[in-house]
């Protein structure tokens, strides 16, 4: 068993493959379960942040387009269309559980500028005071790094450091970090715990698995580095059934845990 009994602040990141179908349409049954479990862990008394991808895919889905060969500018416009679609469904689903949500669009440079970072930190603080669940995505109209490198994973790690989270959970379309990309290699094994991001870990992390996703395991390892440097444990788990979030918090050994050896248990 893992000891997450004292986790007060938790950041949960969901990838494009978790919230949308390859058609770009919303995966409603999954989103319903996600809203339910996050509302539930909020009711337990925790501060919860949801970092969500899926804006570009939702834009594609709404327009009936496919991803192939979209330019960065096209993706920016699609993200602007899709972001509203995402917020509309989150507003509806969390609203059913009486939970207030807030849209927070960020760019990663907030961590480089003290003034901006303080503004963001203060906003999160008041959102928690108001009992809201901040729903974060990158501001793709302003920043293009993520659209090119698929980096909501590292954005979620930055958010975890800004709010001084006790745990970061990344939900993906795979059970965790394997000894090789299961889509490409046979006989790969799930790695349960990683205590250090060394050259071996970097070497086994490959790119994205599905048509609308970006970043793959590489950006999740980058996220783990950031989290571990700040003493924040991170778990990668399969978001197929979002109720795993609750099980992870209960200490069940699900997915891959990244924890620096000198991190005291939170
Ligand atoms: N070593 C690895 N272990 C697990 N998955 C890997 C690995 N290397 C590459 N991948 C790929 O990373 C994918 C998950 O990342 P990604 O496609 O970006 O999804 P998400 O939308 O959840 O961010 C997996 O489906 C898998 O194909
Ligand atoms: N801001 C983009 C996120 C792109 C991205 O990082 O996607 P993913 O690899 O699925 O987490 C969007 O909402 O489409």
TrEMBL record:
It is an enzyme of class 2 (transferase). Residues 8-238 form the Aspartate/glutamate/uridylate kinase domain. Its EC number is 2.7.2.11. Pathway: Amino-acid biosynthesis; L-proline biosynthesis; L-glutamate 5-semialdehyde from L-glutamate: step 1/2. CDD domains: AAK_G5K_ProB. It is found in: Cytoplasm. It catalyses: L-glutamate + ATP = L-glutamyl 5-phosphate + ADP. Signal peptide: none annotated. InterPro entries: AceGlu_kinase-like_sf, Asp/Glu/Uridylate_kinase, G5K_ProB, Glu/AcGlu_kinase, Glu_5kinase, Glu_5kinase/COase_Synthase, Glutamate_5-kinase_CS. ATP binds at residues 13, 172-173, 214-220. Pfam families: AA_kinase. Keywords: Amino-acid biosynthesis, ATP-binding, Cytoplasm, Kinase, Nucleotide-binding, Proline biosynthesis, Transferase. The keyword Iron-sulfur does not apply. Belongs to the glutamate 5-kinase family. Catalyzes the transfer of a phosphate group to glutamate to form L-glutamate 5-phosphate. This is Glutamate 5-kinase. The gene is proB.
């Amino acid at each position: 068993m893992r000891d997450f009994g004292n986790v007060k602040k938790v950041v949960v990141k969901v990838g494009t493959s978790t919230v949308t179908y390859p058609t770009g349409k919303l995966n409603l049954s999954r989103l319903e379960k996600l809203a339910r479990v996050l509302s539930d862990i909020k009711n337990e008394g925790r501060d919860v942040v949801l970092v969500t991808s899926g804006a570009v895919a939702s834009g594609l889905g709404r327009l009936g387009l496919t991803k192939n060969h979209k330019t960065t500018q096209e993706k920016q416009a699609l993200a602007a269309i899709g972001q509203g679609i995402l917020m509309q469904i989150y507003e509806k689903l969390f609203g059913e559980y009486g939970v207030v949500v807030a849209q927070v669009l960020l760019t990663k440079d907030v961590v480089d500028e003290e003034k901006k970072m303080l503004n963001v930190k203060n906003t999160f603080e008041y959102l928690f005071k108001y009992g809201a669940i901040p729903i974060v995505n990158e501001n793709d109209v302003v920043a293009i790094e993520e659209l090119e490198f698929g980096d909501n994973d590292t954005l979620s790690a930055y958010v975890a450091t800004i709010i001084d989270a006790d745990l970061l959970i990344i939900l993906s379309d795979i059970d965790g970090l394997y000894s090789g990309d299961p889509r490409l290699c046979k006989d790969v094994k799930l790695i349960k715990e990683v205590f250090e991001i060394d050259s071996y870990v970097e070497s086994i992390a490959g790119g994205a698995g599905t048509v609308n996703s970006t970043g793959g395991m590489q950006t999740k390892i980058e996220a783990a580095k950031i989290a571990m440097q700040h003493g924040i444990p991170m778990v990668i788990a399969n978001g197929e059934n979002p109720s795993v979030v609750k099980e992870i918090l209960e200490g069940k050994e699900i997915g891959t845990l990244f924890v620096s050896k000198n991190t005291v248990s939170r």
